[in-house]
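Summary for the funding panel

The consortium committed to producing paired sequence-structure records for every protein in the target list. Below we show the first two records in order, beginning with the earlier of the two.
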Amino acid sequence: MLSVRVVKLGGHELDRPEWLAACADALKALGPVVLVHGGGEAVSALSQRLALPIEKRDGRRVTSAAVAEVVEMVLAGPVNRMLVAALRQAGLDAIGLSGVDGGLLTARPAPGGLGHVGEIIAIRVSLLHNLLLAGLTPVIAPMAPAAEGGLPFNVNADEAAAAVAGALHAAELLFVSDVPGVRVDGAVRPALAAGEIETLIELGAATDGMAAKLRAAAGAIRAGAHAVRIGDLQLLGHPSAGTRILPPAVKAA
C-alpha cells in the first residue's frame, strides 16, 4: 500500500509564479502526492467581469448555476493548467484532473442553502492509486457531478482535499496557503485538538476560510487521514511547521 500525502494549495499565493515554483520544488521531496487546489481569487475575478454576484458564507461560496459554470471554467481550466505546468517544470510528472474525469469524484447537494454546492459522497480511489503507481502526480480541480451527471457541483477545496485524504488513508493532509498556521490570541498554535475546533469557531477565534479549513481537517481525521497540518510553504519541508490537528483522544476500554 502506498504511503501518500494529500496537499491542498490555496490562498492568494496561487497567483504568484515564484511561490508556485518554490512549492513545486518542495513537493518533489515528499514522495507520492495528490494535489487538490482552490482558486477562489480567480473565480471571483471572472465572476466580477461577468457581473455575477460574489457572496460567501462561513468561508464557502454561494453558487448559482451561472457561478458553478464559472468555477468549472476557471478551476478545471487556467488554474489547474498553471499548477500542472509548475509541477512539470520542477520535474514532477503531473496530470490535471477535475472531479468529472474518469468518474473521480461524485457529489450530492450540500446542506445550508448555498446553491449549486456539493459535498463528496464517493471517490474512485483505484484511479488515484493507478496514477500514483505509474509515477504521476494527480492535480485535482474540486468540482464534482451528481451520480446522474449534470452541471458539476462547486465543492469547497478544503472539503474535497479532506475527502480525498480520508479515502486514501493518507499519511498526512497538508493545507498549504499564505498563513503560517492557526492563530489563537495572536499566536500560531503548534497543535489543536479536533474537539476544540467548534469551540474556537463559536468564540470567533477562527472565522470564514479558517473555520471551513478547520472543519475540513477534523473531517479528514474522522474519515481516515492519519495526520493533518495547516500552514504555509514551510509545511512541505519541516515536519513540525504549522498547526497539527490532533485526533480525539482514544478512550481506554
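The next record, for a separate protein in the list, is shown here:
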Amino acid sequence: MRAPYDPDLLAGMETMRQCFEPVPLRADTIGPSREHVDKLLATLPRPQSAAVAWREASVIGPGGNEVALTIALPRQGAPGAQGAPAVYIIHGGGMVLGNRSMTAPQAAELVERHGAVVVSVEYRLAPEHPFPAGLEDCYTGLTWFAERAGELGADPGRILVTGTSAGGGLAAGLALLARDRGGPPLIGQLLDAPMIDDRNDTASSRQYDGIGVWDRNDNLTAWAALLGAAAGGPDVSPHAAPARETDLSRLPPTFIEVGAAEVFRDEAIKYALALGAAGTPCELHVYEGAHHGFAGFSAQAAVSRLAVQARQNWLDRLLAR
C-alpha cells in the first residue's frame, strides 16, 4: 500500500509531468522527450543578479570529446572573492535528458548566499553514450575545477559535489571515483533524491509503478539506456550504481534528501544507513507525501519550505568551515 501524496503538492506534480514527462519515458520516446525538454529549457532565462557573474569554459574529455562547463562566481567586490567554497553541480534527467542550464538557478543562489564559485558540467547522455561516458565527463570537469579553482577565486580544498535525481547518482558515483582514483578531495556531497540503484528491487520501486512522476517504468528505461543488458545483473560497477558499493568509508560528509512517495525513497534510505555504518557522516531527510522533485515545483508548500531550510542549514554549516 502506498502512502498518499501531500495535497499541496499535487498541482506541482502535474506541472512537472507536463514539463518533463509529456509522454512516458520508453526506449522509443527518449529522443522526442529529450527534444521537448531541451526546447523548454531554452525558453528559461539564466538568472540575472548583481552578485553573480557567468562564464563558459570547456575541456577535452577522455574520448577526445569536449566537456562544456558553466561557471557562476561572485562579481568583483562580492563576498567570497578569494578562497571561496567551490560547488560542482551535475544536472538531472535520468541519464538520458536535460542539460547544464537546469542548474542555473541553484548555481546563482549558491553564489548569492555563500559567495561560492560554482561549476555546472555538461555530460554525454545515454543511450548514445552509455556508462562510463557521462561519469567520465563529470570527472574531467571536476579535475579541471580543482586545478583552476584558485584562478577562479575558490579554495581547491573546499569542493562540494551535488546533484538531483540522475545528477545525485552521478555525484555519488563521482565521489566514489574520486576516492578510488585518488582524485580531488571533497568536503561534502549533497544528494537530492539520487538515482543510485539499477536493480529496482525495493518496496518503493514497486509501489510507484504507473503513478507519480518518474515511476518504475521510467526508471527501468533509463537504467537500460545507461547500462544495456547489464542493468539489474551481477556485473554493474558501483561507480554507475553507487548503491552496489560495499565499502563506503573515506567518503565526504553527506546530505541525502528524498520524497517518501517516490521510487528512490528506499534506495536513498539504505544508502544513508550504509554510509553511517561505514563511519561516513550522513544527514538523511525523508519528506512525507512528497513526490520526486517536489520542492522545485511546489515552492510554497510547507513540506517544500521545510526541505529547502534543512538543505540550507546543512550547507551553511559545511561551507562556513
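Regarding this second record: The longest strand covers residues 154-164. The domain at 7-30+52-319 is CATH 3.40.50.1820 (Rossmann fold).
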